[in-house]
Amino acid sequence: MINTKEIVALGFAAFWVLLILFIVFASNNKKLKNLAKQNVKDQELVNKHYPFLFIFHIIICIFLIVDFPGLVEPYGVNGLKMLLVVVPLIALILWKVNKTIIEKAKQREIAGYRHRDEKIKLIKRFYPRTFGMSQSAMGGLAGIFGMSYSDLGGIGIALILAVLVVTPVDNWLLQKLYEKSKLKNKQQHE
């Protein structure tokens, strides 16, 4: 007679054997290799045009791991059902957002947009103090906003809200300083 513990042990061993076989066969698949290379190129392009995007992904993970289970815990089984429905929905939304961001990065690359580092270099040349003060103000704003909204559900959701508020303001301010720096650079070369 087979014991339940033996069935669990056999299932666990079978899982690892199948996982190893899958990894071996997947590593030899040319389509998967090409897809992986394309994904790496896409991520490098996204990191070039949107360098702070990885922070948002980390914050989303913190929210899903730390805060969201705490938000649905009071609802018991219904909260678990909600968790099982919302997490795949969030994953689908993040996948679609990632696809959109990759397309936007490709469009920026084709259009020849300067990426953030080049803009910051020009801004620091003409407005170093203004840039430094604006960045410290953005950090302070994010901290104040995050701390004041941490009662909504935890630190993860507060960070998400802070990034969603501060990032557009930072991009707007960076663009304005960049335009002024370009104008000053043009006047200097004339």
Q: Which key phrases capture this entry?
A:
single chain
Characterization of this structure:
This protein is mainly α. 87% of the residues lie in helices and 0% in strands. The protein has one domain (51-189). Helix 2 (30-49) crosses helix 4 (77-111), helix 3 (53-72) runs antiparallel to helix 4 and helix 6 (128-148) runs antiparallel to helix 7 (155-189). The longest helix has 35 residues, at 77-111. The model has no long low-confidence stretch (mean pLDDT 76).
Q: Unreliable segments (pLDDT under 50, ≥5 consecutive)?
A: none
Question: Could you say which overall geometry the principal axes of the C-alpha atoms support?
Answer: flat
Count of beta strands: 0
Task: Enumerate how many helices there are, as a single number.
Answer: 7
Strand content is under 5%
Write down the Rg: 24 Å
The assembly state of the depicted protein chains is: single chain
Q: What letter string, H or E per element, gives the SSE order?
A: HHHHHHH
* Terminal residue distance: 92 Å
Integer tally of domains:
1
Determine the mean pLDDT.
76
The helix fraction, in percent, is over 70%
Structural class: mainly alpha
Major β-sheet annotation: none
Describe the protein's topology.
Layout: H1 4-27, H2 30-49, H3 53-72, H4 77-111, H5 116-126, H6 128-148, H7 155-189
Tell me briefly what this model is:
This protein is an all-alpha fold.
